[in-house]
Design a protein that fits this description.
single chain, alpha/beta, ten-stranded mixed beta sheet, nine-stranded mixed beta sheet, 24% helix
């Protein structure tokens, strides 16, 4: 790969990115077509969310990697240093580290820089990248296809049951960076894989833009866990599209914690395409200052005897805003589906606001599908009761918030991620609970 130089976000940038990446075949033409789509598509706005302050001219892309280890929390520094862990680290527009553990190497797991995968298996990558999330999905996705830099390819052999997770860390160190990166995961039949994503950035002196697509092809009988902690600084614009397609008897578990970001646009779409498939989606967010979270999940039941469960819990304070769209879709042939969705938000003060938009779309008749949503405030009587037991008002409010979030936190299966998340929530509360 040739030397990288930061560039403005425009049509000329994609030409330079393709040159630097030395991509095979028709990939430059694919980039050009995606850029044309990006120019014709609008930002995915709604009555709840506007992108009027997002100006691509403020940003630069193709920023090379810089030193990142000091930015990592202690437990992730240990993960990076310990060769028993499989780790990928992307810094700005460049994959800085790819390492497989002995266990994963012996099992035949493939974890590749996306550019390496593209050179080694161009036809396979072309078939999967954009196969679930095409570039015409919205403007953010089109930009990922046009200006892609970095990214990761993961392929799990049939029957490989991996007992330890793969850590995928994304770090932005430079102000006004624009990073557009994909992740593609192909899990073979009867395989087992856990992925731990964590994101972080430097001090919030200047804005940054991070957009990504993540596509998961889950083979028959395979199980994939997708665990993510978003911890960008409070000036970062974030757009993340994730979609999984499940073959017969496959399962997926999403566990996501949203903490950072100025405006976060997050989408999860699970296609329960095969029979006897199962999906769980747990999302937690804590919004403060003027943060805005626009989050959605869609359980699309297509096969027979599918099961889906969604739990979303969020806490808002200061002048933060959120909207959560939860949709259960059961198609005509998806008989005997069982789906449940719950979305609950807790408001800590008058300036914060949350909206919930649950929905059911059912075409089959032998199904069970329910949903529930609440937006509420801390009960003053509960605060008073805890104060009579010796807690200060701040301790009482914190106890109520922890109790509210715990049912979701307890369903995050990776202990290191769960512990780190609890530490970050403590830190966020200390900023002004």
């Amino acid at each position: 790969m040739k030397e990288m130089t930061a560039l403005p976000v425009n049509a000329q940038a994609l030409e330079e990115i393709a040159r630097v990446r030395t991509e095979p075949g028709d990939w430059l033409e694919r980039r050009r077509a995606a850029w044309q789509q990006a120019e014709t598509l609008n930002w995915p706005e709604s009555k709840y969310t506007r992108f009027k302050r997002l100006d691509l001219q403020e940003f630069q892309t193709l920023i090379p990697a810089t030193s990142f280890l000091p930015l990592l929390p202690a437990y992730l520094r240990e993960v990076v240093r310990d060769e028993r862990h499989s780790v990928v680290v992307q810094v700005n527009a460049e994959v800085a580290l790819v390492r497989l553990s002995p266990e994963h190497r012996e099992a035949g797991l493939e974890v590749l820089d996306f550019d390496v995968a593209l050179r080694q298996k161009p036809e396979l990558v072309a078939r999967h990248f954009g196969g679930l999330i095409p570039p015409d999905e919205d403007r953010f996705v089109a930009l990922v296809h046009a200006l892609r830099s970095g990214g990761v390819w993961v392929q799990v052999p049939e029957g490989a049951e991996l007992s330890t997770p793969v850590y995928l860390l994304q770090v932005v160190t430079e102000p006004r960076a624009a990073v557009f990166s994909p992740v593609v995961v192909v899990a073979g039949a009867k395989s087992r894989l856990d992925l731990v994503f964590e994101t972080l950035s430097g001090p919030a002196a200047e804005p940054a833009l991070v957009a990504g697509t993540q596509e998961f092809y889950v083979g028959p009988g395979a199980r994939v866990g997708i665990h993510r902690l978003e911890n960008w600084n409070l000036k970062t614009w974030v757009a993340l599209h994730r979609r999984a397609r499940l073959a017969d008897r496959a399962s997926v578990q999403w566990a996501t914690a949203w903490l950072g970001g100025r405006l976060t646009y997050g989408r999860v779409h699970t296609l329960l395409a095969g029979d006897d498939t199962e999906a769980e989606d747990v999302q937690v967010f804590f919004a403060s200052h003027r943060q805005h979270f626009d989050l959605s999940t869609l359980l699309d039941h297509q096969g027979l005897r599918t099961r889906g469960n969604v739990l979303a819990k969020g806490v808002l304070r200061d002048r933060a805003r959120s909207v959560f769209y939860g949709m259960i879709k059961i198609e005509k042939n998806a008989q005997f589906a069982d789906a449940y969705l719950a979305d609950h938000s807790l408001i800590l003060n008058r300036g914060a606001h949350a909206d919930s938009v649950p929905g059911l779309e059912i075409e089959a008749h032998q199904v069970r599908a329910t949903h529930g949503a609440t937006v509420g405030r801390i009960d003053r009587e509960k605060v008073f009761y805890l104060q009579t037991r010796g807690l200060s008002e701040d301790e009482a409010r914190k106890t109520i918030v922890v109790g509210f979030l715990n049912p979701a936190l307890e369903r995050i299966p990776v202990a290191t991620m769960r512990d780190h998340l609890q530490h970050l929530l403590e830190k966020r509360w200390a900023e002004g609970g």
